[in-house]
Every structure is written in C-alpha cells, then in structure tokens.
Amino acid sequence: MKRITLTILILVFSIPSHACIMSPSKRTAMDSDRMLQEYDVMFFGRLDSEEVVQDERRQVAKFTVIKSYKGKISGKVVINNKLNTSCSSVFQVPRSAFYVFAKFTETEGIYEISGFASFIPLGNAMEYEWSPE
Length: 133
Fold this sequence. Notes:
The protein is an alpha+beta fold. The chain contains four helices and six strands, in the order H-H-H-E-E-E-E-E-E-H.
C-alpha cells in the first residue's frame, strides 16, 4: 500500500513539471491549420525589440510586419505575450524573424498571445520544413 501511495504521489507531482512535452514552436508548426483558424492574425515579421515585465508575467514584443497571412496587418505591431503556462516561451534575439499567430485586443496595433507560445522562429520553420503557403 505504501508503494502504491508513493507511486501515485510521484506521478501527481511530476506531471506539472513536464506539461509541455514538445517545444511550443514545433507544436505550433504541426498544428498550424488549427492555429490559423483559432487566431485573428498571422504574420511573418522582424522582432524589433522585446521586454519582459516580470511583475505582470508578460513580454512586450515590437515587430515590423513583413508579410500578413491573416488579418491584413502591416507596419509596426506590438505583441503582448502572456507568460502564464509551462508552454509559454519568449521572443528572443531582436532583428530575427518569426511567424506569429495572435489575437485582437481592444487597442489597434496591439495583439496578444495568451498562455501557449503561438509563434515559430524562422530557423525552426526551416528546420521543420514548415511554410504557411
């Protein structure tokens, strides 16, 4: 009985730490058709700057849109990246390129990723041989 209880406790406490089984970018690439339906905008853009706001558990990332695939957006946009799940990930390396899936907010030019990292760095897209077209 002690072994069963111990085994159950080990399983229960180990599950949250391994909730994100594969990298979020790979999962996004593999499930991009669903992501395209679920999110309001999808674009390819250059990360101009980023800042993590620790007390709010979010990242503010500023992009230049290179190509819009959904939502007809252009120019400069801001992505609020909520860092609230184990599968959250941050945009890194300014001047690098990303495919981004995001939702509208009440403010024009500001979009949101909530919980799951719904973007694919260009390098990963090439590695996965993924393209939105």
